[in-house]
Write a sequence for this structure.
């Protein structure tokens, strides 16, 4: 295949990945599109979306897919925990050591080859927590 599409995909993919790895805000596909457009003004939302989905399938990026809310993406694929605000939907990294022994125990109990695990803590972020206290 000598079409120019694979080359273009590679460049787009590189830009998307660099942008995603430069932030810790766990952007949605729409937010990624806004960022990537600064480098590649002609890119479409669909292309950004497809690349993000593909990279998450390949394990290059992490997809944070929680029921009811928009998918978010994370350039950090190492085991780490997240905090999610139930009000505004923001996702932050929780700077806490991943609990040791979870994966080994899960492997023993299930027979799975365990690669990683995740934990999401849900509540109100500091900004939403403040608003909540004021209105009550
Ligand atoms: Zn919030
Ligand atoms: Zn994260």
């Amino acid at each position: 295949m000598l079409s120019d599409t694979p080359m273009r995909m590679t460049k787009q993919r590189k830009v998307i990945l660099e942008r995603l790895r430069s932030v810790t805000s766990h952007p949605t596909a729409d937010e990624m599109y806004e960022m990537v457009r600064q480098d590649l003004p002609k890119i479409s939302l669909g292309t950004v979306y497809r690349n993000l989905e593909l990279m998450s399938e390949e394990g290059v990026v992490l997809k944070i897919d929680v029921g009811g809310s928009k998918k978010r993406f994370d350039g950090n694929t190492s085991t780490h925990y997240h905090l999610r605000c139930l009000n505004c939907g923001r996702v932050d990294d929780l700077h806490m050591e991943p609990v040791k022994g979870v994966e080994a125990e899960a492997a023993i109990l299930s027979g799975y080859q365990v690669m990683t695990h995740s934990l999401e803590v849900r509540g109100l972020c500091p900004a939403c927590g403040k608003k909540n206290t004021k209105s009550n």
